[in-house]
Structures are given as C-alpha cells and as structure tokens.
Amino acid sequence: MIIVDTALRQREAQDNPVRVGMIGAGFMGRGVANQIVNSVPGMRLVAVSNRTLAGAERAFLEAGLEPQVVESLAALEDAVRSGVPAITQDASLLCQSGQIDALIDVTGDVEYGAQITLEAIAYGKHLITLNAELDATVGPLLKRKADAAGVILTASDGDQPGVQMNLYRFVQSIGLRPLVCGNIKGLQDPYRTPSTQKAFAEKWGQNPYMVTSFADGTKISFEQAIVANGTGMTVERRGMRGSEFSGHVDELSKLYDVEMLRRLGGVVDYTVGSRPGPGVFVLATHDDPRQRHYLNLYKLGEGPLYSFYTPYHLCHFEVPLSVARAVLFRDAVLQPLGAPTVEVVATAKTDLRAGDTIDALGGYLSYGQCETAAITREQRLLPMGLAEGCVLKRDMLMDTVLTYADVTLPADRLAVRLRQEQDAMFTPLGASSG
Q: For residue 13, what are the contacts with CB-CB under 8 A and spacing of at least 6?
C-alpha cells in the first residue's frame, strides 16, 4: 500500500488520474464510488453503469457529484474528456471506452458478471471484481482468457479473500509456509432465508438475498474457494471444518494437525465467534529451528503453527488500492493458479420437490458449501454458481448435495457454457484425467 499511495500521488501531481468505470451500484458499489470520489487522489470514477439509472445516479449523488446520462460511446467519451461523471444502463459502453483504464465489477451476479467480464477482456480492460460467485464458478477459465488478452483480472483488496491473500503473501515473504487460510464469522446457519434476514437487511439498506448468502454460508464458501484456487490449498472436508470457537485466533494454532495440513498442502477454513472478529487469519509453519527461536522471542510462541491475523476487512475502502495495483503495477490481488482445487456445490436448504425452480443465491431453496474440485468432478456435483434457475427432476431431501443429473439447467445460459468450456480445459488437481 505504501508504494500504491505514492504512485497515486504522482498521478495526481501529473494531472493524469487513473480513470475507472464501475458496473453495479448497489450498497457496496455506492461505498466504492464515495471512496474514489472523495478519498483517493490520482484516481477518478468517470462512469457508472447500473441496470437502473436511478441506482447509478444515486452512487454519484451520494458522493457529491451530479452525473450526466449517456447512451452512446461517443457521448460517454465526451463526458470523460470534459470531466463530467457519466451514468448509463449499457455496461458495454464502459468496456469499449478508450477513456477508461480499468473496470470494477460490483454486481455479485454470476450470469451478468460473466457477460461483462468477457466484454471487458475483449476490449483490453483490466477488471477488478468483487464477484466471488463468478470467480469460484468459472474463474480459472476467465483468468486464462484475461492472460491471453494481456489484461489483469483480479479479486479485490478489502474483501476477505483479498485480505487473506495479502496476509498469505506477507507470511510467505518472511519465510514461513502458510498451511491454513481462515475467515472469522459471527454467524453460520445454512437454513437462514431472506425472510429471517429481512430486518437486518432493511436496517443496513442491503439486499436480503445477499445478506442471507452471508448468513447461510454460501458467500463464505465462494470466498474460501477462490482463496484455495489462488493458493493451491484444499478443504479438510466437505463444508470445511467451520469450528465454533470463542477464543482468540492465536489459540487455533493448537487445534490443527500439522502433519495432516502438510499432506493436504494446506487448507482453507473458517471459524464462528473467534476473536478478533470480523477478520482473517493465516496459520503457518517454519522448518528452520533457529528462526523458530526468533519467532518465540517475538511472542509468536513455540510453534509448530504460528498465527498471523488481520482483525478487520474494510471492503469498499480498499477497492481503489486494487485498481491501482492492476493499472500501475500489473499486480493482481488474487487469481486462480490454474486448475481449480475447491468448488462450491449446491445443497438443498429444505426438502425439494420435482418441478421446483432453484431461486437466487441466498434464497429459500439452496445453500453452497465447499468441496474438493476432484470430488465435484467425479460425482458430477452441481456448482452453486449455476444453480439459480435450475429445475428439479426429482424430489430431494434437505441437506442433499445436488448433481447435474438431478436438475435441468436453464437454456442459453452463458455461465453454463463457460463452465462446460472450463471443465473441458482443466482436470481438477487430485482428479483422474481418465
């Protein structure tokens, strides 16, 4: 971050700001807009696209700017050159504009996110995504396409996956081997619904489905899956360990079998109720006894696992840092390494009946949980990112993991086609190539 803020101040002094377009203007998007407009020198939010113009307008108005509606590429580029904030319903204009250096995806929608990601790549735009749902579903394929186009496609600082990856990289940089990447939650109940979370969502001005995806474990599963795919780690078991532990995260270092972690190559996990929360942690080991002596002197204990943690995740506050990293340094926060190691699989939240249509993520009928990519492939389990709109072919009991054979997939869905392309491209690590 020290390098990033210095570089941004230089861009400000040169009157050459990084020009950013944002797609999606919900609760998180409005926070991102406010942050860039009012707190980030050397960067300009030049345009916002949203499926409703009122939402895009609100993002700029809350940041203190009066936007102009544009309906063509020429009008958008004229507005940017004139320093006038632009809003539009057509996200493709932002992808096509030569006046925009990078895009931010704040949609959280798998299908729409897939469409704009492909278009951004096609027009040579760096893309910073807060869309872990898309990343966990077809991220390895999209990363391969972005590499071929010479652009950066990356998850973001501030979101827990990005915070974990920053901590992971720090721990590696000082010579330790990370063996657990973890997330600290305050609540985990797979049976929560938009009805149970309605009051909380209204209190904070959020979408009840999005709030439910946090409460029922779907969101954390997507987030930990992309951490696994960015580090090569796996999961200890389906759904992760997910311990309820009210102590300090430092104490977690005594609860894992180090040899098991080594054999697995490290795991992603989460805890419920641990302190300090909400935050993230990395547990790591060191093979050098002399360095272990120093770590003990520095109050990290005798090992063999050492605890490192960040006691907060500041979400939209840190997103502009990711933009600067991509544009100014071609540094990605978090990307898949290659073949996936962990997937998120769709699971029945209640007893399902033949003919039921699965609703949106964080809905009434399904929740997501992590599984190894190898088992997902071998058992033909249904990726959670493809579940919305699927129609049940047969009755299914609550907590049953769905397979492709259990559902009829929606017709003409881009995300489905991309997933088929990804499955043909990669053999998941640990899976048989036969």
A: none
